[in-house]
């Protein structure tokens, strides 16, 4: 009786082990798939994921986190997901153009600027240039710490923003 029980237990453990290995392999295949996408598509999907959908209760933000500018006639009530996708892509291209001088880091900076605002990076009036921009201007691309430092909300470190910054950096930084 004990031999039968031991044999069944060993068989069950072997099946569970093989099943777990297959599931882990499928997970890594899905994770690796995003790295096969073009950089702009990675930035789009990452931003869309972390921003979430903004409806009329989130004014002045609509769609996937677009901040309404003076003179824009978009409405959160009537905006479709397709229109919001197009608007997010347009915004990312606009911010990417603002940071074009930084070459392969321009999309990474554009994604950050979409969330924190370009003035936080480039400086304006009373706000000085960020350490991240100064470091890049000096030719130093060792910017991981400076990039993930943009994870504060209302003066406090926010764990979801830290998770977002790490994901953005992993997806968009080109060594």
Fill in the CATH topology of the largest domain. Answer: Lysozyme
Proportion of strand residues: under 5%
Give the CATH level 1 class of the largest domain. Answer: Mainly Alpha
Give the CA-CA distance, first to last residue.
60 Å
Global geometry: globular
What would the average pLDDT be, to the nearest integer?
Answer: 85
What is the domain total for the residues?
A: 2
SSE diagram, text form:
Layout: H1 2-35, H2 39-51, E1 61-62, E2 66-67, H3 81-98, H4 106-116, H5 118-122, H6 131-137, H7 144-148, E3 152-153, E4 156-157, H8 159-172
Helix pairs in contact: 2-3, 2-4, 2-8, 3-4, 4-8
Q: How would you describe what is shown here?
A:
- The chain has 175 residues and is mostly helical.
- It is 61% helix and 5% strand.
- It contains 8 helices and 4 strands; from the N terminus they run ααββαααααββα.
- It has helices at residues 2-35, 39-51, 81-98, 106-116, 118-122, 131-137, 144-148, 159-172; strands at 61-62, 66-67, 152-153, 156-157.
- The strands form 2 sheets. A two-stranded antiparallel sheet has the order 1-2. Strands 3-4 form a two-stranded antiparallel ribbon.
- The longest helix has 34 residues, at 2-35.
- The termini are far apart.
- Mean pLDDT is 85; it is low at 4-25.
